[in-house]
């Protein structure tokens, strides 16, 4: 007779988590000094735990509202039910049938069957909608996007309303900055032309959705079982767990491995597709007047400043920057031999504030106010800091 622990272990194989977490991309996992707890703080059901260099989600407590998806600065959290790509595809297909209007509705509103289910895409909650998802839809040709929800004030998951508003504000700022002709509207009722005049189709549409969801579930379970079987065959399940240092592969210098700011790069690509070509050209070629290049104030791009009077030049900010938005300058050198340059790339900065958290002199500031011209500029901004003099960091010392 199998032990209870074995039964529980195999039962987990049939559980499909609504969220997937890339542990190695979370700054709180990478460094115990990181203060970022944005996903945990926005979760109103306390399903997210961050402790001992690990982030975990309680699948039983998680209501799959999606509020945590947009706040993570390094995009280490992604949804599986539904996945980002599935929402985009469903929304674009529905837009064709809706004659141009791209509509996404929350599950609560969709359940009332007020609108033809063939004309809109469905998400558990509108908090699943991120700036990147809206930019993806816009880049595919959508110009009129309607987001429909029930009255959040009466919803038991209404606490996600703040996350929805934040996403819409940020998306509109990004579109407006590049004069993108994208209209995003949040509604409590479906547009009149979406009225469900063919109620006989509801069951069929629901059945198709159920079959698609069932297919994804079976594929996930199959992958879980295959992985478990492989672990048992190789004996890895009983091996000693790898440490964080081993897993991340930090070098002898202590330099943490970096990863590209893919979400930022993808967002920029989408904005360049939908933005006003003349405005983009003026920004990238430096022809725009100062008032035409107003600073953004979004959560996707950040601006770093360093007080060179207080800085010791220890280099911890470079050492721990996860996306390499900060790195040592390789070519330009200041006239003063006691100083050196750091290169800062605004497009790679995700506002994780890891540099602020590890700074020993409190001389670094990260703000969301960043010039769109700087975001689109391929040339990094040079930041002058002193070369270390009095005391080298431990990781730079040479021992006999």
Describe the protein.
It is a single chain. Helix content is 36%, strand content 15%. By secondary structure, it is α/β, with parallel strands linked by helices. Mean pLDDT is 83; it is low at 7-14, 200-214 and 392-400. Helix 7 (131-139) crosses helix 11. It folds into three domains: 17-79, 2-Layer Sandwich (Alpha-Beta Plaits); 84-198; 262-396, Alpha-Beta Plaits (2-Layer Sandwich). A four-stranded parallel beta sheet has the order 6-5-7-8. Strand 2 (48-50) and strand 3 (55-57) form a beta hairpin. It contains 15 helices and 15 strands.
Q: In summary, what is this structure?
A:
The chain is an alpha/beta fold and 400 residues long. Helices cover 36% and strands 15% of the residues. Strands 6-5-7-8 form a 4-stranded parallel β-sheet.
Furnish the topology, listing elements before pairings:
Elements: H1 4-12, E1 19-21, H2 27-30, H3 38-42, E2 48-50, E3 55-57, H4 67-71, E4 77-79, H5 84-97, E5 101-106, H6 107-110, E6 121-123, H7 131-139, E7 144-148, H8 161-177, E8 183-187, H9 200-234, H10 244-248, H11 262-274, H12 277-284, E9 295-297, E10 303-306, H13 316-320, E11 326-328, E12 339-344, H14 354-358, E13 364-367, E14 369-371, H15 372-376, E15 381-386
Helix pairs in contact: 5-7, 7-8, 7-11
């Amino acid at each position: 007779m199998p032990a209870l622990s074995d039964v529980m272990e195999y039962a987990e194989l049939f559980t499909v988590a609504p969220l997937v977490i890339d542990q190695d991309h979370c700054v709180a996992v990478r460094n115990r000094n990181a203060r970022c707890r944005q996903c945990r703080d926005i979760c109103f059901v306390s399903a997210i735990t961050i402790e001992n260099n690990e982030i975990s989600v309680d699948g039983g407590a998680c209501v799959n509202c999606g509020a945590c998806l947009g706040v993570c600065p390094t995009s280490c959290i992604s949804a599986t039910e539904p996945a980002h790509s599935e929402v985009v595809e469903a929304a674009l297909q529905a837009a064709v049938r809706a004659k141009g209007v791209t509509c996404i509705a929350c599950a609560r509103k969709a359940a009332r069957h007020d609108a033809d289910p063939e004309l809109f895409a469905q998400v558990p909650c509108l908090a699943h909608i991120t700036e990147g998802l809206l930019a993806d839809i816009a880049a595919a040709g959508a110009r009129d996007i309607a987001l429909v929800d029930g009255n959040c004030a009466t919803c038991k998951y209404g606490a996600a309303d703040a996350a929805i508003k934040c996403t819409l504000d940020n998306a509109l700022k990004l579109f407006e900055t590049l004069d993108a002709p994208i209209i995003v509207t949040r509604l409590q009722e479906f547009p009149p032309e979406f009225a469900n005049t063919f109620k006989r189709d509801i069951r069929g549409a629901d059945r198709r959705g159920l079959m698609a969801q069932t297919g994804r579930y079976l594929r996930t379970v199959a992958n879980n079982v295959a992985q478990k079987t492989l672990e048992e065959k190789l004996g890895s399940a009983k091996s000693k767990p790898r440490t964080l240092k081993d897993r991340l592969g930090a070098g002898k210098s202590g330099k943490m491995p970096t990863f590209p700011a893919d979400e930022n790069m993808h967002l920029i690509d989408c904005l360049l597709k939908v933005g006003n070509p003349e405005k983009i050209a003026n920004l990238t070629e430096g022809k725009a007047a100062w008032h035409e290049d107003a600073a953004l104030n979004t959560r996707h791009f950040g601006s770093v400043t360093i007080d060179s009077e207080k800085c010791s030049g220890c280099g911890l900010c470079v050492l721990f920057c996860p996306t390499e938005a900060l790195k040592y300058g390789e070519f330009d050198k200041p006239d003063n031999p006691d100083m050196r340059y750091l290169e800062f790339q605004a497009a790679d900065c995700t506002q994780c504030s890891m540099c602020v958290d590890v700074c020993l002199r409190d001389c670094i500031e990260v703000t969301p106010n960043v010039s769109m011209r700087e975001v689109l500029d391929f040339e990094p901004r040079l930041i002058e800091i002193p070369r270390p003099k009095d005391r080298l960091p431990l990781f730079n010392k040479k021992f006999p």
